[in-house]
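Quick one before lunch.
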Amino acid sequence: MTDLISIASLFAIEGDILEIKPLGNGLINDTFKVVTAGQSPDYVLQRINNAIFTDVDLLQSNIEAVTRHIRAKLLAAGEDDIDRKVLRFLPLRDSARTWALADGKYWRVSVFIAGANTYETVNPYYSEFAGEAFGHFEAMLADIPDTLGETIPDFHNMELRWRQLREAVAADKAGRMSLPESREILADMEKYASDMCRAEQLHREGKLPKRICHCDTKVNNMLFDADGKVLCVIDLDTVMPSYVFSDFGDFLRTAANTLPEDDPDTERVDFRMDIFEAFARGYLRGTASFLTPVERDNLPYAACLFPFMQAVRFFADYLNGDTYYKTLYPDHNLVRTRNQLRLFHRALSKVPQMQSFIQQH
Ligand code: GN1
Ligand code: MG
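Model of the magnesium ion complex:
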């Protein structure tokens, strides 16, 4: 068994460790809370999934650059309580590096932010704060001096995700393409694939920039204070150059869905316009300093793109035999696919409403 206490002790933590217990429910890394005695802060210990984040050094140097830049911005803006508004990763006891290789696995430690809440769902009131916070996050990173690498190259590139699905279909490693439902899902996706690749097209035409984005703006990747204000954005592994659609679309994918992304009751999946409107209002405010008309006009497309891309990714993993996302039962990725595809259709049906909302704001 991995001795988590000795691993945590490689890092410059203060205080004696009382216990280490699982934290959160990410689908990629394993996360633990390190509880310490007395007045010392608690910490978050993470085992980095290096099958997915293959360049841990790049991963951590991106994160260090991002947190350093945000910290400096918050200081310059005279913010209080900065340690609760940006993550702080600890160096090792014997070097400045913020990751360790122990037991054949990669690890890192950050300070646990106390008195903060995470949620799996949000109401419109919280969504507006979230929109503004992700907008600010992008705005603060607009002038970061460091060049960030892509921790997962082409992470939100729809053309690549579509190609990967085609490859999964051709290889049919788990023999799941013979199911009639698999063929129906594929046929449905095929109808929309080329339109959903619009972002790459716009980028090639020079009409759509890449900016530093968070790229995993799930609701549960934000910490809220007791009043519902956003304290801090967490889970910075995927912060990298991307289209702003990533942050806008991925938040709504989780927040505007009436159900969790793996709820099997697909019929009840819907895309909530009240959440869309509140989030968009906040986001447009947070990004007013830089958003271009092309980016703005395509926000309704982004709201459709992310459920679609996620359905494609879940379905490809299902066909590959569940090698990427953690699954709890054999059809888990199929259930997720159905859910996200339905969400995509619900969002698509509301594009005219979304467009008129954006035009009016
Ligand atoms: C993964 O690690 P987690 O659960 O925050 C995934 C996201 C998906 C999400 C689906 C690196 O995020 O892209 O949208 O699952 N992260 C990676 O729930 O692939
Ligand atoms: Mg997460």
